[in-house]
Amino acid sequence: GQLRYAVPEELEHGAFVANLGEDLGLDVSTLSARRFRIVSRAGARQHLEVNLENGILFVNERIDREEVCEAGGTCLLHLQLLVESPLELYRVEVEVLDINDHAPTFPWQEYVLEVAESAVLGARFPLESAQDPDVGTNSVHTYRLSPNGYFSLEVQTRSDASKFAELVLERALDREQQRAHRVLLTALDGGVPERSGTAHILVTVLDANDNVPAFDQPSYGVSLPEDAPAGTLVIQLNATDLDEGPNGEVEYSFSGHAPPRVRELFHIEPRSGQVLLKGALDYERAHLHELYVQAKDRGPSAVAVHCRVLVHLLDVNDNAPEVTLTSVSTPVLEDAPPGTVIAVISVLDRDSGDNGRVSCELSPDLPFELRSSFRNYYTLVTTQALDREAVPEYNVSITARDMGSPALLTRSALTVSVSDVNDNAPRFLQPSYSVYVMENNAPGASICSVSALDPDCQQNAYLSYSIADGHIHGMPVGTYVSINSDSGHMYALRSLDYEQIRSFQIQVQAQDAGFPPLSANVTVHIFVLDQNDNAPVIVSPMPRNGSVATELVPRSARPGYLVGTVSAVDADAGLNSRLSYQLLQATDFTLFSVAPETGELRTLRSFLEQDASRQQLVVQVRDGGQPALSATVSLLLSVVETLPQTLSDFSEFSLPPEASSSSPLTLYLLVSLGSISFTFLLAILILTAIRC
């Protein structure tokens, strides 16, 4: 709807105009939060303002109706009121009422009117018009003439309802009796209180002139397009005088009561009677001009005759539409529902008729449309849901085109930014991660990095990483690994041992900082790689108590005879646990690896009589790591004629006397130890005796 108020001009600042909050049904307590305001064109003066505390419309600065509305008639201030959340538009018209603050004034305080003494009774002589910028009853209402014995006054009305006065001859003039007459003309307006202005008129009586000029007709009408250039011929006037010589030469000029605006726009060639265009016409300011022209000859007793010329202006489509974005609510949330108002657009075409009728359209393929709210006002609204991640910004072109021929158009660009809503969860770059870590790593070493992306922006795209709670071999996962919440880098908190734990998995979460926050999880598989950090361990044979493993071999053994086996294990894996067996010196025996944990010792040839009956072998077990680790075991082989009934692979026998007897070095050590002990004991005894 539309509200209309009226306010007198010239009110002081703060004067009450209307209670908009009450009339519009708005909650005054929310006016400030909803940014209730008057929107106006750029550069326009803000004559009125709204108090956001009570919703009252008041005078912001003094309003001069004659300044705001140069043309007469109704003076309206068009206000567009806007309130947001939700965005609503109201239209208010405030009529500025005229007060009688101007008195009528004449262009000259005194002027001369020449009248021939031969003028007939009832002859009319137009007088200079008074001007009053007020309108209606406050403008010039009537004229009065001071009492005299020769003239009376008649007030005439122009087509625009303005008044002018004509002097009417009531008594014959006689130049020999009185050559001049003085009268006082008073113009009065219709205001309360009444205001007036005066002008002195000197009527000079001229000798009789036989003939006076005469126009072809008393009134003329002509049409002229408003875009006619200066110098255009408006009309050719013609007045004839039957006298000869100077008395028959006619001169043309504007009558004294021709309005000042007419004198600014038009010019009369005094001798030819051509009315020419002098200024720029504007149909939107005035579509009719009334010209009052007088003609008189050049004789000594010239009498002026008058005619009226009505110039009708033809509207030309000379004003392109004006597009003004009176309010823009941008950026718009990407989850805004269809129908959300983004902007209020006003269009204005100063032409009239079809030339001033405007239609608006948008560039195609956009999720927006224009809806007409008031005449020449549109709202730009969404037609579908927006997606900032697909299109973060729209360049909207608004075309305003009038209905003139040819049509004029104006394009205005509007950038609509789409603000982000946290509608996208983070997404990891991989569906899962597999990480390989060498055992015996240093605590605190970086083992991998995970990364996620969030197509949202700003805080909705800021990600923090964390490890979900859980246990690894009964211990909290937080004792094994940690993660940098900003970068996603993961670190091992302890040294891993392949022989204790070969693999485990953890859940990593990426969460954005939106409200409410969104998150995503990913599984990280951590595999511990083996390192050759364990040497082989020989489990069979096992020498004990200073003895070595022994084996009995029959002297009759043939080549390939199985003497015994050596078994070992390695805690590592893969190549690091692949074992090989070999003899460290060349002998008559060979060693074969028949399984990863077992090596077979076999003879290479038959025993000879000269072969020693006891042979000591050293077997080395080596893994396949880099570098390789190894272990050795000593074997004592006894060649016998016949084998006992029951023997293990490697039996334990006491060493023969020559092998078990102490060496001289051992004897020396025992003697030295005994001597030292005896000396120490003797020293203690002597010291005790001395003390006693």
UniProtKB/TrEMBL annotation:
GO CC annotation terms, alphabetical:
plasma membrane
This protein's superkingdom?
Answer: Eukaryota
Q: Which residues cross the membrane?
A: 665-690
Q: State its location(s).
A: Cell membrane
Question: Its GO biological process terms?
Answer: homophilic cell adhesion via plasma membrane adhesion molecules
Q: Please tell me where this protein is predominantly located.
A: membrane
Q: Look up and give the membrane topology term.
A: Single-pass type I membrane protein
Question: Can you name this protein?
Answer: Protocadherin gamma-C3
The species this protein belongs to is Indicator maculatus (spotted honeyguide)
Coding gene?
Pcdh10
